[in-house]
Amino acid sequence: MTDQPSHAAEPSPPGEAKRGDAMLDGAALSARLPVARGRIAAMRPLADLCWLRVGGPAEALFQPADRDDLAGFLAALPADIPLTPLGVGSNLIIRDGGLSGVAVRLGRGFNGVEVLPDHRLRVGAALLDSRAAMAAAEAGIAGLEFLRTIPGALGGAVRMNAGCYGAYAADVVETVTYLGRDGRSVTVPGGEIGFGYRSSDLPEDAVIVEAVLRGRPGDPAEIEAKMADYIARREASQPTRDRSCGSTFRNPSGYSSTGEAGDPMDLKAWTLIDAAGCRGLRRGGAVMSEKHSNFLVNAGGATAADLEGLGEEVRARVRAACGIALEWEIRRIGLPPREAAS
Ligand SMILES: Cc1cc2nc3c(=O)[nH]c(=O)nc-3n(C[C@H](O)[C@H](O)[C@H](O)COP(=O)(O)OP(=O)(O)OC[C@H]3O[C@@H](n4cnc5c(N)ncnc54)[C@H](O)[C@@H]3O)c2cc1C
User: Which sites are catalytic (predicted)?
Assistant: First the structure.
C-alpha cells in the first residue's frame, strides 16, 4: 500500500439515484465500508457503465486504485455486505431498483498487458478483450483473434467463458488470478476451472484481477487479416452499433456459432425466436433486433424492466411455439423497481 490520500464514500448529488433508491441506503452502507485509496461512491448510477444504458444505482461503487487496495478493502469488508464484480457491462442488465451492497469495478490499475515467453500474454482483468487481441497480434501470437470482436474486458471474458467463431476463453486461459471475498489472492490453472458454455465455476464473489493467456506462433499480418474478417462478419450480421448485450439467449445446441459455412449447430436461439414471430417484437424502448433477432436492443428510452420483460415474453412465446425453454445468456442482477417489488 502507498500513502496516497484515502477516499471515504462520496455522497451522491440529490436526485442522482432515480429509481429504487428507497430500497438501498447508501449513507448507512458507506459508514460501514473500509477506507480505501480508490474511489467509493454511494448510490452511484450504473446505467452509464453498462452497454444497455439502463438500471438503477449501486448502493456503493468501489473503484480500487490497485490490487493491494482491493485486497485490503476486501479483507476488511464486513461479511454480510453483498459484493458484485462488474466488468464493462456488456453482458449485464442491472435492474431498475439498483444493486445492494458494493459493486467493484476495476480500472486503470488493472489494465496492464505484458508479453511473456512461449507465446503468452499476462493481461489485467480490466483490459478490453479487443486490446488483448491487438497486443497478441503485434507480438505474433495467434489464437486470440476471437477476442478482437468481443466488447467486454478480460475479467468478464473469463467469468463468462466468452467465445465466438469456434474459440472460447477456456481454450486460451493458462492461469487466472482472483481475490477471494477475504482479500486473499488465488491463482488457478485454466485446466482446473470448470468452464462451460458461457460459464465458469469460479466463486461468484471472486474478483478476477489477472489472467495469463497462451497462444501459438503466428504471422502478425495473417492475425490482423483474421481479425479484420471477424469484424466484417459481425458488421454484416449483427446490430453492432445498437445498444445491446450481444446474444440474449444461449443457443439450445450448447455452442456459439462458428460462423463457418455448413456449421452443423442448427439449433440456434435466433431461429426459434424467428419461428415464434418475435423478430422486431417491442416493449417500451426495448426491441428484438430486426437485424439479428437474438439481440435485445435498447432502441431509446428503455428501462431494465422493459428489456427483461420483453426477454421473458420471447421465452414464453418460444416455449408455446416449440416447447423449448430458452435460457438467458445475459446476466440480470439487482433489485426490481420499488413499485414492482411492493
Ligand atoms: C455487441 C456485443 C457482442 C457480443 N458478442 C459476444 C460473443 O461473440 N461472445 C461472447 O461470449 N459474448 C459476447 N458478448 C457478451 C459480452 O461481451 C461477454 O459476455 C463479455 O465477456 C462480458 O464482459 P464484461 O467485461 O462486459 O462483463 P460484464 O457484463 O460487466 O459482467 C458479466 C459477468 O462477469 C462478471 N465479471 C466481470 N468482470 C469480473 C471480474 N473482474 N471478476 C469477476 N467477475 C467479473 C460479472 O459479475 C458478471 O457476472 C457480446 C456483447 C455485445 C454488446
Answer: 198, 247 (proton donor), 329
Domain with CATH 3.30.43.10 in the chain: 21-105
Compute the distance from residue 156 Cα to the ligand 1 centre, in Å: 4
Fold of 111-222: 3.30.465
Question: How confident is the model over 260-275, as pLDDT tens digits?
Answer: 555 555 689 999 999 9
| Least confident among 45-54, 57-66, 74-83, 261-270 | 261-270
Q: Measured from the CA of 169, which atom of ligand 1 is nearest?
A: 11
Could you give the CA distance from residue 216 to residue 298 in angstroms, rounded to a whole number?
39
Which CATH number is associated with domain 21-105? 3.30.43.10
Amino acid at 18: K
Contact 80, 121 (CB under 8 A): no
d(CA 125, CA 211) in angstroms, rounded, equals 7
Q: How many CB atoms lie within 10 A of CB 99?
A: 25
Q: Is 111 in the pocket of ligand 1 (CB under 6 A)?
A: no
